[in-house]
Request: fold
Amino acid sequence: GFLACLGIACYDLSSASELELKAIVPDHGGLTLQKSPVLYYFISEPTTLPVRFTLIESRTDHVLVDMLLRSPDHSGFWPVRLEDYGIVLDPGVEYRWFVTVIQNADTPKKDIVSGGIVECCPDDLVYDAPTLCKRADTVLASCGIGMTHLPASVN
Reply:
């Protein structure tokens, strides 16, 4: 089978017989130290179909961002760099995010959707520079408490 790894997480992607989309998220809400983290998704094949990114504040269900991304021109991991879009998460607030491949704009129930939860840690734990987590033991220890650490660039 095909096993794809990103950071310390691995995903079995060998069973995909059609376009498959997966948000790269933990089984529970992911915590981050960055106010504008990079979120990742995996797509099993290139597509010319529209791809939408949606960010919702969980407390109010307010849609903060709903925008089209560049359609992936190859399979693999794709970043959504929140900083590139001027998106800053408020510390201590949980957000739901989704990536959607729009198969038919008239029939949303046929869209392919994947997403997850991200929360920026409170201000006393937030760091502007990602230099805190250079050592593997720090990364593994913080993953044990739900911290999300992904490489700065995959593509």
Q: What stands out?
A: Residues 1-9, 128-155 have pLDDT under 50 and may be disordered. The first helix runs from residue 136 to 144.
